[in-house]
Design brief:
The protein has 923 residues and is mainly β. 7% of the residues lie in helices and 52% in strands. It has three domains: 97 residues, Phage tail protein beta-alpha-beta fold (3-Layer(bab) Sandwich), CATH 3.55.50.30; 100 residues, Carboxypeptidase-like, regulatory domain (Immunoglobulin-like, Sandwich), CATH 2.60.40; 666 residues, TonB-dependent receptor, beta-barrel domain (Maltoporin, Chain A), CATH 2.40.170.20. The strands form 13 sheets. It has a 22-stranded antiparallel β-barrel. A five-stranded mixed sheet has the order 6-12-11-8-9, with no helix packed on it. The longest helix has 20 residues. Belongs to the TonB-dependent receptor family.
């Protein structure tokens, strides 16, 4: 029987060869026409007849110009970007097929040795012969009834035995599903979706049963028949089953498996129970409860990451920079929690694609709008109200998300005992909009717009205001199954103003603004299972207006002054490779080369060599024309990290990296102020540099029920910008004479224990860290604390955070948040002296003393609405008490001289328990 079958195949093969030789050559041209029309034209020029199903050719356009070309070659070209194959019979019939091919011959050894070759895991692609036709078991009872999906176009010349399946998984609202486990039944293959719901997995050719599992998502099973590389996007429904316990499998070992050190992922939905001040869910305040991230004090704006300054953090919202991410004196963040999907925080080894900051990157992503149906979320609290709406624009393809948040906080200031604050006002609002559009399986665009504004008046004669504005556009394109890329355009602006209208004749209006525009191209190339490359280029233009002041009113004696504009161009190229050396060792190697040019028009002051910078040592002023290069800086930035498995659930990681920062903040405040200005590097001010090494141990227990990590770091910094005593930083054209540049060092150990499952869950974080600054010079006026290292303003050796959630039932839960921190350094007056009949205060070395330690306990009780499926909205009540113990934690200490005596005072933000009731609903 086998011999008879072989003879039949050989005869058919001979007839096929003869038919191929007789295929005529024709000339034909197509320009973006339906493929069905192209086939009709070919039929009119030949004796061939095509056979196919009409639905196979829907929405398929073709273009081509062929001169004296065989029909088979024309069809090869027309169908190269489709899943269509064809077969030409000897009776002038052409049969079209989806995905698979018609075989009229079988490869050698098809009935025996080829199967042995497929089972040999060490055989390379070049050693495999033609695999022959692909057979699918249609009578598989266990998998009968499953949805069958065919992917790719079969190619008999392709000798690969595995292909890449990729795509995006969304829920019924069109939102991406992150951390969803994808498992191939019966095979040791699996992956998970990233934050954008995208996945990629290498599968063997032929039949694969894909199973998905995720928290709150219905499980699914799909039969995928894989002929070649391809894309499969699909939608899953939320799960409303009542479960005693849910085990999260997706990315369950991320903390142990990833190569990068010091990386934290925060998801908004998972922090909604953490009790925070005035009931506002806050992704950035939640970050402060994690090791290595702190602030200078309660209500302080900005973050200090691993001993770094607040200006050393790159805070991105959909790839656009936010310079001041705070509202209401730092009590709230400027990021709308309802429109935010997640935040990836890098505080150890920063990926090569990011640059321009030394300490950390907060990469915050706005969630995509719902492409399926209208949805929204809103909250009403004692100080703020918030609403986010999502609506489809083109069903299943595009959607618009719009969110807004505003405050009615003046009643808080009016209720305070301080008479000076009774008539004060403080308000803020922010709006965000995002449009996401899937053009096709290879192209997707996303556009985001954001604006926030704060205005406050603490005294009756001054009004302060500041605002952030950004726009960003991202175009994602898939070039092939292995290569994807993104084009990113963004523009950010930060500005503040002060309007003073007092009783004297010195009324004024002051303004400041900085602006940056960036273009970035980043690519991803999946070379193989062992190598995954990221590479690209970026360029950013800074434009800083250091400030201007004009008289307010005709009677003001203030003179108009405008400080000249500063401009700088920062560019970079970068490449990184995630290299899996073996099953135990993973290395992430990155290199970034950054280049900065300070640009004119500008007047740069030249000072004497080997002399302090002051008006007495000024030699000349050099003029530079517009866009003329004033000075250049730059160099290589190494990003190297590695992970080694000691056991499957125990790994050790190490990293080493360096970075340059070309923009600095100018401040002589202890904490961040809205009136802090930014200064670009130029002829007299060099860029900051930092070098960091870290080493950590990571362990999971009981199937990721518990996570434990211990990580230590050491950081050195150069050219940190600080201030001289009594410096005038605002509206100072010769700013280099008021500042100092010195060295810094920081080191510490971070401990984190998390419990992810069970009725009681949460985490315990402890950080021991030190941060020092050294301002040394051969000139006394440029030396601080005798040129020795001294603690920075935010040096807090001990930092403990405990976050605990207890779930009584599916609807009722309680949460607690405890914080303890060492008091930050301050400078105290230690004496006084008389000179020329005047009294002067003598101060200690800078930051020699500390304010009292800080500790606080917050509690909340949370009640969710019923879990009925068919209802308009899902509600969530939160009853919380901030600072339950009523601890009068000092925010700052200041000194006042009264009748020749120096008196010390401390200020506090919340010195009593603050109760809050917040109502949230989601529809």
């Amino acid at each position: 029987m086998k011999k008879l079958f072989t003879i039949i195949v050989l005869l058919a093969s001979m007839q096929y060869v003869v038919a191929q030789e007789e295929i005529p050559k024709i000339s034909v041209s197509f320009t973006n026409v339906d493929v069905s029309r192209a086939l009709e034209i070919i039929e009119s020029k030949t004796d061939y007849k095509f056979y196919y199903l009409d639905e196979w050719l829907e929405n398929v356009k073709v273009t081509g110009n062929f001169q004296d070309t065989q029909v088979s070659l024309i069809l090869d070209d027309l169908f190269k970007n489709t899943v269509l194959n064809f077969y030409i019979s000897d009776d002038q019939k052409i049969f079209l097929l989806q995905n698979n091919q018609i075989y009229d011959s079988l490869p050698d050894d098809f009935f025996g040795e080829q199967e042995d070759a497929l089972a040999d895991e060490e055989i390379g692609y070049e050693q495999l012969k033609d695999l022959g036709p692909l057979f699918v078991n249609s009578n598989d009872g266990a998998n009968r009834g499953l949805e069958v999906v065919k992917i790719g176009r079969e190619n008999r010349n392709n000798r690969r035995r595995t292909f890449t399946l990729s795509g995006k998984i969304v829920n019924e609202k069109g939102q991406p599903i992150p951390d969803l486990a994808i498992i191939v039944k019966g095979k040791d293959i699996g992956t998970s979706t990233n934050a954008g719901g995208n996945y990629s997995v290498d599968l063997p050719v032929g039949e694969n049963i894909l199973e998905t599992r995720g928290l709150g998502i219905q499980d699914s099973r799909t039969k995928v028949i894989l002929y070649n590389d391809g894309v499969y996007n699909f939608q899953l429904n939320e799960s409303f089953e009542v479960l005693d316990e849910v085990v999260v499998q997706a990315n369950r070992d991320r903390n142990v498996e990833a190569a990068l050190t010091g990386v934290t992922l925060i998801e908004v939905e998972k922090i909604k129970n953490i009790p925070l001040v005035l009931g506002e869910r806050d992704i950035l305040k939640a970050a402060v409860t994690l090791p290595g991230i702190t602030t200078a004090g309660e209500g302080a704006a900005g973050f200090n990451v691993r001993g770094g300054r607040t200006d050393q953090n790159l805070i991105l919202l959909d790839n656009g920079v936010i310079y001041n991410p705070s509202h209401f004196f730092g009590i709230f963040s400027a990021i709308n929690p309802f429109s935010t999907g997640s935040a990836e925080i890098y505080k150890g080894n920063i990926p090569a694609e990011y640059g321009g900051r030394l300490s950390s990157v907060f990469d915050i992503t706005t969630k995509d709008g719902n492409t399926e149906k209208f949805a929204g979320e809103a909250s009403i609290g004692p100080v703020t109200s918030n609403i986010v709406l999502e609506t489809p624009i083109v069903k299943d393809k595009s959607a618009l998300l719009v969110g807004g948040r505003a405050t009615y906080s003046d009643w808080i200031l009016r209720s305070l005992d301080d008479e000076q604050l009774n008539n004060s006002t403080a308000s803020f609002f922010d709006v965000v909009a995002k449009y996401n559009h899937t053009i096709n399986e290879n192209n997707e665009i996303k556009a985001t717009g954001y604006f926030s504004r704060d205005a406050f008046s603490i005294t009756s004669d001054s009004i302060f205001d500041y605002s952030n504005r950004l726009v960003s556009l991202k175009w994602d394109h898939k070039f092939s199954e292995k290569t994807t890329g993104s084009l990113i355009l963004s523009n950010s602006e930060y500005k503040f103003g002060i309007e003073f209208d007092g009783e004297s004749n010195d009324d004024f209006d002051l303004g400041y603004k900085n602006n940056e525009t960036e273009v970035k191209i980043k690519m991803k190339y999946l070379h193989s299972d062992k190598h995954k490359f990221d590479y690209g280029i970026s360029s950013k233009l800074y434009v800083v207006n250091p400030g201007d002041i004009v008289p307010l009113g005709t009677e003001s004696d203030v003179s108009s002054l405008t400080i000249p504009e500063e401009r700088g161009l920062e560019s970079a190229v970068f490449i990184s490779d995630s290299y899996e050396v073996n099953k135990k060792l993973l290395i992430d190697m990155g290199l970034r080369f950054s280049f900065y040019a300070a640009l004119g028009a500008s007047s740069q002051r030249i000072y004497q060599d080997n002399a302090p910078l002051n008006s007495g040592t000024l030699v000349e002023t050099q003029e530079f024309d517009k866009n003329e290069v004033i000075e250049t800086y730059g160099g290589p930035e190494v990003r190297l990290s590695a992970r080694y498995f000691i056991k499957p659930d125990l790994s050790i990681k190490a990293s080493l990296n360096n970075a340059y920062q070309y923009i600095h903040t100018l401040s002589n405040n202890t904490t961040v102020s809205p009136t802090d200005t930014w200064k670009l590097s130029d002829l007299n001010i060099e860029p900051q540099e930092a070098y960091q090494a870290s080493l950590g141990l990571y362990k999971n227990f009981e199937g990721n029920k518990y996570e434990l990590s211990v990580e230590g770091y050491y950081k050195q910094q150069k050219n940190l910008l600080d201030y001289k005593v009594g410096a005038q930083l605002l509206l100072n054209e010769a700013i280099e004479t008021e500042v100092l540049q010195g060295d810094g060092k920081a080191y510490g150990v971070e401990f984190l224990l998390k419990k992810n499952e069970g009725k009681l869950n949460g985490w315990l974080g402890y950080t021991y860290s030190r941060s020092f600054v050294k301002l040394d010079s051969e000139f006394n006026e440029e030396r601080v604390n005798n040129g020795d290292f001294f603690p920075s303003n935010f040096d807090k050796p001990h930092d403990i955070s405990v976050v605990a959630n207890y779930k009584f039932t599916r609807r009722f839960s309680a949460s607690a948040n405890f914080v303890y921190q060492t008091g930050r350094p301050v400078t105290f007056p230690i004496g006084s002296f008389s000179f020329n009949n005047s009294e002067f205060v003598f101060y200690s070395d800078r930051n020699k003393f500390r304010i009292p330690d800080y500790y606080r306990l917050d509690l909340s009780f949370n009640m969710e609405g019923n879990h009925k499926i068919k209802k308009f909205a899902h509600s969530f009540w939160s009853f919380s008490i901030y600072n339950v113990l009523g601890r009068n934690n000092p925010y700052s200490v200041f000194f006042v001289t009264e009748n020749g005596d120096i008196k010390a005072f401390q200020s506090s933000i919340f010195s009593i328990p603050v109760p809050t009731i917040t109502y949230n609903f989601k529809f």
